[in-house]
Structures are given as structure tokens and as C-alpha cells.
Design brief:
The protein is α+β, with helices and mostly antiparallel strands and 143 residues long. The protein has five helices and five strands. Bound molecules: adenosine monophosphate.
Length: 143
């Protein structure tokens, strides 16, 4: 299955934030949407980073609550690993495993086209396993 097929089912909405927004605003947005990461974009809507709940927890543990007023740009990861619509879910899964992250923005023609989370990948994989099991069961019963 491709990234495109997953986005067709879940939609292409991505919750974003500006690099100049405060970390407190990022926390609020993550909580409002009940998600784990925000894509950071510049004024031209190009992706300039990603900030996840993990980044915020680590910086809070290191430097305390005073950082909540600091800009997102100070904490975000700048080198974002992304994928394209035509890629397979397996290749995205491999990228998540290798990079130890749970969110991969989808970029098409320099534009944000969606986001794939580890939850989407697991859901897809479970569906696949269930279909394989059903096919094997049918085969055994009819052989
Ligand atoms: P996560 O597992 O998504 O909470 O992210 C764990 C760490 O990887 C955090 O430092 C994130 O900023 C970073 N991260 C998350 N997604 C990506 C990505 N697609 N590309 C690069 N870094 C990422």
C-alpha cells in the first residue's frame, strides 16, 4: 500500500505551527488536537522543522518551565525526514525505525501533502495481517 492510499482514507490535514510561536503555544496546540507532533512551516508554507512532544519533555527536564516562552525554532528538529505520495508504507516504516521517530510529513512538489504517524502505519499493518490470515484460513478450508 502507498502513502497516497493511507492519506485517501485519513485525509491530508496537518496541524502546523510557525517557528516564532512559543513552546507554550505548541503545547496548547498538541493538546487541543490530541497529537504528538507539529510540522513547523515558514511564511511561504515550506516545512522548516518538526517539533514533537518528546522535544518539549526533554527541554523541560533540562532547562525547566522558563523555556515555555521561548520560540519553537529553538527546540524543533530542522532536518526533517519526509516521504512522497508514491512511496510504500513499508519504506516509511523503515525510515521511522531507522530514525527513531514516529511522524513523517508527506511532501509533494515542495508542498505539505499530509503526515503519516506510527499509529497510521500500525493500523495499516494490522489490516494487512488480518487480510492475510483470512486468505490463509479460506485456502485451508477449501483445499
Ligand atoms: P517523535 O517520535 O515523532 O516524537 O520524535 C522523536 C524525535 O525525532 C524528536 O526530536 C522529533 O523532533 C524528531 N522527529 C520527529 N519526526 C521527525 C521527522 N520526520 N524527521 C526528523 N526528525 C523527526
Amino acid at each position: 500500500m502507498t502513502v497516497k492510499a493511507i492519506l485517501k482514507a485519513k485525509g491530508s490535514d496537518v496541524v502546523t505551527i510557525e517557528p516564532s510561536a512559543t513552546i507554550a503555544a505548541a503545547v496548547k496546540r498538541l493538546a487541543e488536537h490530541r497529537i504528538g507532533a507539529l510540522v513547523v512551516h515558514g511564511p511561504d508554507k515550506r516545512v522548516v522543522g518538526i517539533i514533537s512532544e518528546r522535544d518539549i519533555v526533554f527541554v523541560l527536564a533540562e532547562r525547566g518551565a522558563g523555556i515555555l516562552g521561548d520560540p519553537v525554532s529553538q527546540v524543533m528538529t530542522r532536518k526533517v525526514v519526509s516521504c512522497g505520495l508514491a512511496e510504500t508504507v513499508s519504506s516509511v516504516m523503515e525510515r521511522m525505525t531507522a530514525g527513531k521517530f514516529r511522524h513523517v510529513p508527506v511532501i509533494e512538489e515542495n508542498r505539505l501533502a499530509g503526515i503519516i504517524s506510527i499509529g497510521d502505519v500500525v493500523k495499516h499493518r494490522l489490516g494487512e495481517i488480518e487480510r492475510e490470515t483470512a486468505a490463509l484460513r479460506d485456502y485451508i478450508l477449501t483445499a
